[in-house]
Here is the input.
Amino acid sequence: MARGWESKSVEDQIDAADAAKEKRAELHLSAQQRERQARKQSLLLSRAQTLARLKAATNARYRSQLELALKHLEKQLSELD
Here is the structure.
């Protein structure tokens, strides 16, 4: 067996074990913790979308609106932490 193949197999096993640990940890979360985690993921996704739109925006008014939205999202994220 080639050495590269063997190390890749070990790496895949480690990744699978880590994924299983994360899955078990998620099962033990309370309803409130799961809701908070889902809210945080939603805010992070909205933040990423806003950043992408801000990067592509050329209109000054639209950019300022996106910047305000970004500040609002970041405030909400900081309140979750």
